[in-house]
Amino acid sequence: GVLARGGNVADAAVAVSFALGVAEPDASGIGGDGMALVWLASMDAPVAVDFKDVTPGRASLDNAAVFRDGRLVADGPAAANVPGLVAGMDLIHRRFGSRRFSWSDLVTPAADLAAAGIVVDEPLAATLAEGRTLLARYPASAELWLPQGRVPVAGERLANPDLAETLRGIAAGGAEAFYRGAIAHRIAEDMAANGGLITAEDLAGYRAV
C-alpha cells in the first residue's frame, strides 16, 4: 500500500516493521532490534543503520540480579536489553523516507491491527505451545498469550490492546515518547517494580547510528 501510494522503500520498511511486530509477535516487535542496509537510487553508496539492543548500565557481573541459580538469567525483566527498533525506524524515516508519509501514517496501521487482533496461524500456535511453561511464568504474558489458561489454536483471533495503546503513543509522540517520554517512564517503573535492570537513563541514552 505504501509503495502504491508513492512512498519509497524506506517508508515501506518502517510500516512493515511495525506491522510485523503485531503479526509475527514471536519473531518481531518494538522490544527487539536489528540492522538495515539502505541504498536508494539517489544514493552513491549504501548506508548501514545499526539499531541493535544494548545492555543496561546496571547489568554488570557484580550485580546479583543478573544471575538465577548460579547462571545468567535467560528470561524475565532482568534479561531484557534496551531495545533499538523504534529508534532505528525513526532514523530510517527521518534520513531516508520520501516525506510523503508522516511517521503517524506509517505506525498507526500497526496500532489498528493490534486493536483488531491477528488471526493465529499454525507456526504461532506451535510457538505458543512450545513456550507455554515460560509464558505462564509471567502474569501479563499468560493473560495475553494463554487466554483462559490455554494455548490458542490456529484460526483464533487474538487482540493486543496494550500494544495498540503503546503503538498509538509512538505514532503520536515518535521515538521520543518511547525513549524519553511517557512510554519510557512506564517501562522504567515496571522494571524497577519487577526486578528489571533497564532505567530511564538507559532508555534516554539509546541512539541508533
Structure summary:
By secondary structure, this protein is mostly helical. It contains nine helices and six strands.
Task: Please provide a written account of the structure.
- The chain has helices at residues 9-23, 85-96, 103-116, 122-130, 132-136, 139-145, 161-179, 182-194, 200-204; strands spanning 34-38, 47-51, 67-68, 71-72, 118-119, 157-158.
- With 209 residues, it is mainly α.
- The strands form three sheets. It has a two-stranded antiparallel ribbon with strand order 1-2.
- Strand 1 (34-38) and strand 2 form a beta hairpin.
- The longest helix is centred in the last third of the chain and has 19 residues, at 161-179.
- The protein is globular and about 55 Å long.
- It starts with 8 loop residues before the first helix and ends in a 5-residue tail after the last helix.
Topology (SSEs and partners):
Elements (H helix, E strand, L loop, with lengths): L8 H15 L10 E5 L8 E5 L15 E2 L2 E2 L12 H12 L6 H14 L1 E2 L2 H9 L1 H5 L2 H7 L11 E2 L2 H19 L2 H13 L5 H5 L5
Antiparallel strand pairs: 1-2, 3-4, 5-6
Helix pairs in contact: 1-2, 1-3, 3-7, 7-8
